[in-house]
Specification:
Blueprint (H helix, E strand, L loop, with lengths): L1 E12 L2 E13 L4 E5 L6 H8 L7 E6 L2 E2 L5 H11 E5 L10 H10 L5 H14 L15 H13 L5 E5 L7 H18 L2 E5 L3 H4 L4 E6 L2 E2 L3
Parallel strand pairs: 3-8, 3-9, 6-7, 7-8
Antiparallel strand pairs: 1-2, 1-4, 4-5, 9-10
Helix pairs in contact: 3-4, 3-5
């Protein structure tokens, strides 16, 4: 599904080249659940953003489902992202001016889905996440855990093949965090959604089928 070959990311400061990622080589199969760990500044979020097509490497090759991500046109890349990838952020990234319902519906508006079908899809996911009663509320009226649930519902509403999660439980208490991780486990096992999460938590990382450790922008070989 995903092939990263010799991925480098750097910034130039003066005459110095500061590396964020160095020589990253990864193969990820459909249905994998990968946890990426490492200290702050090790390049975890940068790697996730490159996989999620939100950032480009300075050098290297990225194949997603047989397509060379960085040689196709921007419009094709955008379509590839919209049709295949859901993103869950630590800071939720919900739109405060939109209701829960409208936030969840947003990804579907970018696809040519009829209104009635959109309504059915959103109603189904509201029900699945037990947030039907919250659909007319705005994000500031929700707890952190509820906002993260809405963020995950929004990421999953378009049925992505790949879910990327950047510290998805970072702002939650331990019980809420556990509920989110159990939810990830369920959608991975029952629906075959590939998940790549960045986490500081050993406990959360253990939900993954494979743990990748980054240090100074490189994958540590154990």
């Amino acid at each position: 599904m995903i092939q990263l070959q010799k991925i480098y990311k750097w910034h130039n400061t003066g005459s110095n080249r500061v590396f964020i990622l160095k020589d990253i080589n990864l193969n990820i199969e459909q249905g994998d659940f990968i946890s990426i760990m490492g200290p702050s500044g090790s390049g975890k979020s940068t790697l996730l953003n490159i996989i999620g097509m939100l950032d480009e490497p300075s050098e290297g090759k990225y194949d997603f489902a047989g397509q060379d991500v960085f040689t196709i046109k921007e419009r094709q890349r955008s379509e590839l992202y919209k049709q295949n990838i859901g993103f869950v952020f630590q800071a939720y990234h919900l739109i405060d001016e939109l209701t829960v319902y409208e936030n969840i519906e947003t990804p579907l508006l970018y696809q040519s889905i009829k209104t009635s079908e959109r309504q059915a899809i959103v109603a189904d996911i509201l029900d699945r996440f037990n947030i039907v009663g919250k659909k007319d509320l705005f994000p500031p009226q929700l707890s952190g855990g509820q906002q993260q649930l809405v963020g995950i519902a929004r990421a999953l509403v378009a049925k992505p093949k790949l879910l990327l999660a950047d510290e998805p439980t970072g702002n939650l208490n331990s019980k809420q965090g556990e509920e989110i991780m159990e939810l990830f486990k369920k959608i991975n096992e029952e629906e075959g959604v590939t998940i790549i999460q960045v986490t500081h938590s050993e406990k959360n990382a253990a939900y993954g089928k494979q743990i990748i450790h980054l240090l100074d922008g490189m994958i540590e070989r154990k």
